[in-house]
Amino acid sequence: MIPLAQYLTEFDEQDGTPFAGRKSPAPHPRRPRQPEFEHLMLVASRAFDPDPSADIVPFPLIALPEMALPEDAATTARKAVPAPARAEPADADAGQDEGPDEAAAVVAGPSQEELLEAAREEARAEARAAAEAEHQAALAEALRAEREKAAAEQAAALEAARAEWAKSEGERLAGLFDERLDRIETVVHSSLASVLRPIALDARRRQTVMELAGAVRTLTLDGAPLKVRASGPADLLDALAAQLGSGSAMVAFTPDKDGVDVRIECDQTVIETRLAGWRTALEEALA
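Predicted structure:
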C-alpha cells in the first residue's frame, strides 16, 4: 500500500502544506484537481473561507471503505500539520521487493496448524493400529478359549453318550445272553436226552440182565430141580437167555409185550427189575 503522505505531496502547493489552498477571485469554491492516484479523500480548501482562523470543514464526499480514517486521524489532518517527507521510491521498491520474498518464505513451509493436524492424524493412525492389534489379539484369545471350551464340552458329551450307550448296550447284551443261554440249555438238554437216553437205557438194561443172570445162578446153585419162570420184554428175555448159557434150560421164558420190567419167579422167591422207575427218573433228569 502507498503511504498517504505520498498522495498528499502531489498537490501544487508551494509551501509543502497539503491542505493550504490558494485564493481565487471566483465567487464560488472550486474543487481541487483530483490527482491521478486511487483512494484519495478530497477536502475543501480554506482559501474561500471568510474566516481563515476557522477550522477546515471537509467537503461532504463519501470516503472509500478502505481509505476511511479514524476520527482522531481526521482531527489531526484538520490542524494542517506539515506533511512528512516523501518516501524514496527505492525504499518503497525495496519494501515491495521484500514483501513477496517474505510471503514466499511463509508459504513455502506448512503452518503450525497443519503440523499439529498432521501430528494428530499420525497419533490417531497409531492409536487405531494399536487398538486394531489389541482387538485382533483379544479376538484370537477369545476364539482359542471358545474352541477349547467347545472341545471340552464335546469330549464330555461324547463321554456321557458313550457311557449311556455302554450301559444300554450292556443291558441289551445281558438280555440276549440270558435268552441265548436258555436256548443253549434247551438245546443241550434235548441233545443229551436224545443221545444219552439210549446209552443210559442200554447200559441199564445190560446191568439188569447181568444182575438177573447172577440171581438165577444163585437159585440153581445147589442143583436141585427148581421151577423158574421169567416174564418180560422179549429183548430182555433173549439177553437173559444168552447170558445164562446152558443154564437157560432150567428157566421158562414167557414174553410180555406190554411189560417193561423182567419178573422172575422161583417157588416162593420173586425177583423184579425197576427199569420203569429208573427210566422215569432218567426222563425227568434229561427234561
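Summary: Residues 42-49, 63-71, 73-77, 87-98 have pLDDT under 50 and may be disordered.
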